[in-house]
Design a protein that fits this description.
alpha+beta, Flavocytochrome B2, Chain A, domain 1, 4-stranded mixed beta sheet, 2 helices
């Protein structure tokens, strides 16, 4: 009888551990998920977010605007590895396909809204 109770206790502890782990993953996702807004960004707003003089860095890709934050690859509004091809405040739809990362980098950017 004691062996059966011990096995049941181990199963319950294992299930609780799994539930706790899943809960932690869900919380981590909720905290780090990109905040999606419905703000429509004009061409002028995109151009003003040029990453210089304290301005935000926005880039447009395929009609959607993204904010670039805390990236070591962007400095003073320019994407350093692109050799002067990618700048904040611009539509990079035609340039992104030339990059080694392509559009996979979008998962690291914060969506701002559609470009008008």
């Amino acid at each position: 009888m004691a062996k059966i109770i011990n096995k049941k206790a181990k199963i319950i502890v294992t299930l609780l551990n799994i539930t706790f782990a899943v809960g932690l993953v869900a919380i981590a996702w909720w905290v780090t998920k990109p905040k999606i807004t419905t703000k429509i960004i004009s061409q002028a707003e995109l151009a003003n977010a040029n990453g210089q003089n304290g301005q935000k860095c926005y880039v447009a890709l395929d009609g959607h605007v993204y904010e670039i934050k805390n990236s070591i690859y962007w400095e003073n509004g320019q994407h350093k590895p692109s050799g002067g091809q990618a700048y904040c405040g611009r539509d990079l739809s035609n340039i992104i396909s030339k990059s080694p990362h392509g559009k996979t980098i979008l998962s690291r950017m914060t969506p701002v809204g559609p470009l008008r």
